[in-house]
Each structure stands twice: as structure tokens, then as C-alpha cells.
Amino acid sequence: MTMPSATIRLQTPDDQPALQYLNECAFGPGRFARTAYRVRENSVRDPRLNLCMELDGVMVGAMDLTPVTVGDVPGALLLGPLIVSGDHQSLGHGLRLMLYGLKRAKDLGYRIVILVGDLPYYLRAGFCPIPRGRIELPGPVDPARLLYAELVPGALEEYSGLIRGMRDPSNVD
Ligand SMILES: CC(C)(COP(=O)(O)OP(=O)(O)OC[C@H]1O[C@@H](n2cnc3c(N)ncnc32)[C@H](O)[C@@H]1OP(=O)(O)O)[C@@H](O)C(=O)NCCC(=O)NCCS
């Protein structure tokens, strides 16, 4: 049996109800209190990096990469949320969405991606723990879950300090 392949595309305003439904199912109302959620809400998005995945016209996954500054240095992205709907999980969609997004972000000139998540999952996309105390979010986060992936070799060296939402995502150089 061959599996139908899912399509990755940019999110549009019409996708908002389906995206909200995915978020609600994955995280429930508690998502609004998460530190990473609050940073994202305070940042201008880069619409070139808000992705979703469709299968037979149904949205089955989504991932955002939000521009942030780290210690006032631009060129960084905060990954999340990454969601694949319950009945489509463990088919490789999450990894595919993530690798596609990382490649796209690199091509757009971004230098590093940071996220809060489970290392055993994100390891397979090349994420590692950020050395303790080097980079912080403005709220409580388990430091073992604060991960990074360099899009440019050695980029971590350029980034230390507090992560904040970014106002001008076009300036990534
Ligand atoms: C995490 C998530 C996006 C993975 O999507 P997916 O399409 O199922 O992922 P993949 O198919 O690429 O990988 C599946 C594998 O990852 C493993 N995995 C999933 N979540 C994991 C986690 N938190 N920690 C460790 N492994 C995990 C699965 O067990 C599976 O393992 P297998 O390959 O040995 O069977 C999806 O489970 C999801 O939407 N979860 C709810 C929302 C969430 O927690 N998002 C991440 C934080 S923002």
C-alpha cells in the first residue's frame, strides 16, 4: 500500500480556524500561559515561515518559526508550535515539516533556531541543549528543554542573553 503524500505550504488567513483547532487539540487552553507562547505573541511574524501541512484538503500539521532577538542580536528564530494531528502522528510528518522549515529559514538568511521541547524528539532534526545560562526566555522554562540548531556553523557563539520578540523580521543580516 502506498501512503498519500502530504503537501507543505505557507499558512493563509483562511487557515486560522483549522490552525486554532490543531492548537486546541494539542495543547488546550494552557498554551496561552506558556513562556514561548507569550514571546511569539509579542513578535512580528515572518509570513514566509508560518507553515502547514495538508493531506487530501485537510490540515494535518503546522509549524511556526518566529523571528526573535537574543540579547538584542537578530537573525534567530523561535520554533513552535509544531503540531501534527493525533490520527496522523508517527508517519514522519513532524520531522518532514521541521526539516523543510529549517532549510527554508537558512535560505532566508536566518542563523539559529531555538525551541523549548523534548530533546529525544528534536535530536533527530539536529537540535542540542543550549549550555546552561547562555540564553534565557523571559519566564520559567526547564533549562534542559531549551534547545538550539545552528543554520550557520558556529552561530551559537553570536547569541547570548534574553530572547525577545522581534519588531522587524526583514532585517536578518
Ligand atoms: C511532537 C509531534 C509534532 C510529532 O509529530 P509526528 O508527525 O508524530 O512526528 P514524527 O512522525 O516525525 O516522529 C514520530 C516519532 O517521534 C516520537 N515522539 C513524538 N513526540 C515525542 C516526544 N515528545 N519525545 C520523544 N519522542 C517523541 C514518536 O514516538 C515517534 O517515534 P518512532 O519514530 O520511534 O515511532 C506530535 O506528536 C504532536 O503534535 N504532539 C502534540 C504537540 C506537541 O507536543 N508538539 C511539540 C511541542 S511544540
Keywords:
173 residues; alpha+beta; Aminopeptidase; nine-stranded mixed β-sheet; globular; binds coenzyme A; GCN5-related N-acetyltransferase; GNAT_dom; acyltransferase activity, transferring groups other than amino-acyl groups; Acyl_CoA_acyltransferase
Short description:
The protein has helices at residues 16-27, 35-41, 93-107, 119-122, and strands spanning 7-10, 50-55, 58-70, 73-84, 112-116, 128-129, 135-136, 146-150, 161-165. With 173 residues, it is an alpha+beta fold. It starts with 6 loop residues before the first strand and ends in an 8-residue tail after the last strand.
CATH class: Alpha Beta
Task: Give me the secondary-structure category.
Answer: alpha+beta
- How confident overall, as mean pLDDT? 92
The largest sheet, given as strand count, sense and whether it forms a barrel, is:
9 strands, mixed
